[in-house]
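PROTEIN–LIGAND DATA SHEET

This sheet pairs a single protein chain with one bound small molecule, zinc ion, given as SMILES. Inputs appear in the order they were entered. The predicted three-dimensional arrangement of chain and ligand is reported afterwards as a token string under its own label.
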Amino acid sequence: MAAEARFRQIHLDFHTSEHIPRVGEKFDPQNFASTLHKARVDSITCFARCHHGWMYYDSAAFPKRIHPHLHRVNLLKEQVEACHRLGIRAPIYTTVQWDHYTAVRHPEWRVVGPEGELVGTKPYEAGFYQEICINTPYRDFLKNHVQEMLETLPVDGFFFDIVRPQDCSCWYCRRGMIAEGLEPTNRQDRLHYNKKILDGFKLELSNLVRTHNPDATIFYNAGHIGPSVRESQTAYSHFELESLPSGGWGYMHFPLTVRYARNLGIDCVSHTGKFHTSWGDFHSFKRKAALEFECFRMLALNSKCEIGDQLHPSGEIDPYVYQLIGSVYKQVEQKEPWCRSAQAVSEIGLFTTEEFTDERVPEATAGAVQMLQEAAYQFEVLDTASDFSKYPLLILPDGITVDSEFALRLDDYVAKGGKLIATGRSGLDPAGTAFVANLGIELAEKPILAADGLPVGGRDVGGNFKYVDYILPTKSIGKGLPPTEHAMYIKAVEINAKPGAQVLAQVVASYFDRTWRHFCSHRQTPSSGRVTQPAVVKWRNTIYFAHPIFTIYNQNAPYWCKALMLDAVKLLLGEPILQHDGPSTVLATVNEQTNKQRLVVHLLHYIPERRSREIDIIEDVIPLHELSVSLNIDRPVKTITLVPELKTLPFRRENGRLNFVVPKLSGHQMVEVAF
Ligand SMILES: [Zn+2]
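PREDICTION REPORTED AS:
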């Protein structure tokens, strides 16, 4: 396996218009590298070629593509060599599907939509987002470009940007689909073909790179890592999770994605930005507290850090940006010894609905991640190809359909003592006609149908609070809640419990659904008091919730949904790995460094606030005092120490748990538990 990725990286954008003069004129190699070094940067991705299509090195093969006003004709090489002198890695960036220079000169290489339209930025709009198809002769250009870089530049690695599936009907793709016996008019066939072409492209390019330079790092960026990466994973040396919280990804994308990606066997490096908003936001600054949270959260979730910046066209590195970055990276550097080769210790495997919906932040999974993080559970995000045998509890949130092969694997898991929670439409066969997972339930015979002819239950087809029912908390599920109706904003899947299954909570119907024929007040119709079906069913080691409770939580986070679910988790799982008495805004994770014989607990307390219409802001650190933490460990513990401060803490064992108190949590605190 390759060397562990570096912890303090920069992604230095340099998309520079041809209308800007004297590009690179103020570049000073020594100042460039020493500014990075002072900010404790240990890797920086620099530009060979940008989305405008311009090159920043002295290309002999493509002289016309060199930026017309590039003052330092070997800017890239000088950047890389200056960095190398100070021990800083400098992988090379080049663009794949967005290249304005190529798009205007080769419209026949562009992605064609099913209506014959050229996909991406229109002629009278600003932007270089014209999509280019890599199934055209453009692919030959890319290979020659990469070949030239391998032969003429010092290559640590490559970052290939914008490598994403397309729905393309260009002539090359249509011809290719026909040759493979596919039906080009069928969208599914087109997507299937495009995925295959894209995977083949990645594997071919990586092969080219590795033939010249087996140690080069290689990454293909699609702005996301999800289950669809599996077929081409060998083309990657590591993953980079582009996830700028203020750049359109939000604060949920990163934890969800990294909890999936970190299980795929290669290193994860995660991007945020120094920008106030997103890429290209020149002369803007993120608040230090936000940058700390974003980087320290990466460490807590087993990722390395990468901060996005854009170099000014003059080539002069901004000292104020690197003061900010340095103020955070100096702390990262001190924390690193407790993060190297650290593996998460987890008790729950949460399946992602991304596999079925293709959403980057799928609602049900996001709701579950949010809920489990608030409750300090330790968990991974999985897909159906994952090995889930090692997790004591599995959660199938809302929309995990089950084919016969997956059903057998789940049966085997439960038979061996594994615990399972399924919610909403999870456990149904892919056609939605019957439960194939053994959950002690069956579909009711005549469900209410929505306008599309499919059952209403478990699907968000309501809008305007049309289809709402109520759940009655009991002494086992929702025990801290008032024992009265609680609104469930998406109606339950209509089910019956099988004989022998235990009903833990019931559904109470409203008087009627809200339609033009009958409605009541502003929103949903109130409870009729009539119990209609089970809401929560226990069967052997499984608990089934008829409501898509995680989607509801993702939509508007009713506290009772969390309370109901956490009771079920506790009922099946028993003692959690970690507990604390802090607020639900604490993020707590547990990692293990087996080679150092220690656990490292990460505690974070930063609160993103919706202060503006567009983005969440973190401006302040709100410290917590006297935070009690307990761990479910039976191994003998030598010491508990606040790190990197190296202050030891007293601890005691009680009821099988290890208890200690963190005197002050100011943003981020690591606690070492040495065996
Ligand atoms: Zn095409």
